[in-house]
Amino acid sequence: MDKSIVRFILRYSTPQQIRLLLMTFCSFPLLYVSLELPKIIINDAIGDSTSIKQIFDITFTPMHYLLALCGLLLTMILINGMVKMYINTYKGIVGERLVRRLRYQLVERILRFQPRRFQMISQGELISTVTAETEPLAGFIGDSIALPAFQGGTMLTILLFMFMQDPILGIASIALIPLQIVIIPRLQRKINLLKKERVKTVRHFSQRIGESVDGMMEIRLHGTRPYHLAEFSKILGELFRIRLDIYKKKFFMKFLNNLINQLTPLMFYSIGGVLAIRGDLTIGALVAAVAAHKDLAAPWKELLDYYQQYQDSHIKYEQILEQFQSQELMPTVPASDTSPTQLDNHICLDKVAVGSELGNRLVRNINLELPAGGSMAIRCKDPSRLRALARTLIRINPPLSGHLLFGNDDLQTLPSDLLARELTYVGPDAFLFSGNMLQNINYSMRLKPPMEPPEALDSQRLWEIREAEASGNSTDRFDGIWTDFALAHAENWEDMRHWLYQGLKVVGADELIYNVGLNEKYNPVDRPQELSDGLLRVRRQLLQRVPAAGLDHLVERLDPQRYNCGLSVAENLGFGVPCPPISTPASMAAHPQMSALLEQFDLNRAALNCGRRMAERLSELALEAGPLDPLPDNFGEFDTPEFRRQVSELERRDPARSSEDARLLLELFLRIVPLRHGDDLLDDSLTAQLLATRQVVMARTDCPLCSSFDHFSEDRISAGLTVRENVLFGKVIGTDQAQLRQLQQLIDAAMQDEDAESMVMVLAGFTQVGIRGGSLPLIARQRIQLLRAIVKHPKVLVMHEALTAMSLEERATVLRRIRTRLPELTLIYLDQEIPPGDLFDSQYQIIADELQSLDIDTLPSLASSNL
């Protein structure tokens, strides 16, 4: 990165700055004319109102001459204003482009930081630097050359005009400028030091907030909230002191500057007045000079502000450089004509020594050879040695000495793109990106920028590409398909589906993902028709197989003539799932036709009574759980602070009086699911009345409320039901675990027969994993991370403490499946324990700082020893 902000500006925007200068110079003659015209109007047109004027052989009467001059002045004002508007707009464009370039460079460096760099700088500091601290630079970058040229030229033009009127007035106008040049920079330097201190304090504040968020559990566990609040109070107090000092010095400087600026007009009035009285200066010239001085104050003020802005931006850029000017960047090796196009997975370590991030030697003199397609395990009780060796094998840290060869090529010289495709790593930190599981599994294959034929580019996309090029950013389309299907030996997603299904089985995640898919609520709108057709075929089989197996009592079918205790009252009422715009119990309860419908069947009083009983039950559960503990799982939909508050206030107002209370009770009534909330909330007579109401709701199409339901049908997959409920066409109500397992076996068999099992897994792939994968357990994150690594058929896989959530036997099973599914894969396994069995061609252990061969026959006895 450039050492100074001026060098950065000149390097990336010199042509644009020259264009701005040319436009600036073109504005000066226009400015001079606009200054000269008022004097001519006063002296010639108004002061000499009896003479006939002749210009370019055109004769003007005094009135016409005055109007012509005013029209010319108006034209000059418009042209001058348009030129200024263009210059300011273009300055903004230049500034924003360079800030975009700077941010892109900073983010690019973040992506190349060595892992140890993130131990020295917090996430909060990096975010604050890239976003907030670069924002003010846009204004200065656009003004860096054009503003001093424009304002300086404007000031010189005005001074030239004033000296042309009278040299004494010209001298008076600049007499106090040297005083400002001496005082203002000295005060500004003090303010700059305070601003530098403020930025450091804000960064520290951001870092401490981020650390507190990460350690929130420890803070609550140990009750150290007052301690941290005291720390934040101290930091905020320090920040307040700095900002207060800045305000004092800043406004004192403005006071001096304004005082000096006000002295100059006083000199005009005194000196110019004396000259006018003596007849040495015309009134028009004096008025023009006073007006010109007012115009002179603006560019001089802009120049002073520019100096302050330059100092401020200079400090900001230096501090940004301090954060990002790291020599410890991940190597990026471009491909050349002599670079290999495929990775040779015959690995040789020749006298390799590896060290820590600080350069301390951890393992020395490693001499190993691993043939292509071979496997090797290395164990060590010291995780730092394993981590150092793993990072050396994947070129994050270079070896301290020796050579790490892939075939005949040194690892340090291999192209980065080649390593990204064919060398992969799975570590102990199973990190998942925000999004769904399928996006995380597919993440390792996002290596092929989407193709964009020129004829397919619209005007918006062409503008995006042009601006990205102007800012030195990537021009690749982000929202296209980046997946390189060739890595998985596939052509499209349809081919990928079966490979993903096999991959899930390899890593042992098939059962987990499959169950997630079965419990996923189905939405036919954004799912392929093939999946709906497959599930319908499964449903037809199960409608016959479940009764034949004598398990029909475990499922309550969706029958339009029967009340289903697994559905809510709202779903039972319309025998379907409510759709927008009336899609929630709250919106249904507030709809005016709901009260009319219930009144028609004499259900209003019963509905409010049921809602009251539901509110009482929720209050009892909340009282038992306490304010901080969650409600039971079957009441989880009510477990929000807002809902708890509403129910609590409702209980205090007994009986409910307002229309808002009635709507809340009605909403509670519509939410009741007897199977989950208790079958005592609804009696038989009430369910019979609801069934009678259902017939009217299903028949009416003229009522917005009645027609808002997507009715259940045996001939199509229904939204709002899970996949399991859809294929059973009903709700599971049984509790006998043995019988439920039999039912699940019937579902699995039907899924396999109709080739729908893999489609359900793909559907499960749309489940959101949360931030950092936090919504999934560790074992699920580790399996997804492993699948992400092998889905692209790598040639070399380095596994470093990657399966810690599994038992040794489970690890052995997964490793055996990987070896079977990818026989040409070279596998290096690093962990504190080695799974049992003949999984590896060779095994080693690290004792002290040496690598020693581990005889397979002695493995059981060594497993319990302290290495």
TrEMBL record:
Q: Which SUPFAM superfamilies match?
A: ABC transporter transmembrane region, P-loop containing nucleoside triphosphate hydrolases
User: According to Swiss-Prot or TrEMBL, what is its membrane topology?
Assistant: Multi-pass membrane protein
Q: Does the keyword Nucleotide-binding apply?
A: yes
Q: What is this protein called?
A: ABC transporter ATP-binding protein
Keyword annotations for this protein?
ATP-binding, Membrane, Nucleotide-binding, Transmembrane, Transmembrane helix
From the broadest rank down, the organism's phylogenetic lineage runs:
Bacteria, Pseudomonadati, Pseudomonadota, Gammaproteobacteria, Oceanospirillales
Q: Where in the cell is it found?
A: Cell membrane
List each copy of the ABC transmembrane type-1 domain by range: 39-312
Looking up PANTHER family in the UniProt record yields: ATP-BINDING CASSETTE SUB-FAMILY B MEMBER 10, MITOCHONDRIAL, ATP-DEPENDENT PERMEASE MDL1, MITOCHONDRIAL
Q: Which GO terms describe its molecular function?
A: ATP binding
For this protein, the parts annotated as crossing the membrane are: 20-42, 62-83, 145-163, 169-187, 255-277
Q: Which domain of life is it from?
A: Bacteria
This protein's species is Marinobacterium rhizophilum
One Pfam family cited in the UniProt record for this chain: ABC_membrane
Q: Does the keyword Transmembrane apply?
A: yes
Alphabetized InterPro entries for the sequence: ABC1_TM_dom, ABC1_TM_sf, P-loop_NTPase, Type_1_exporter
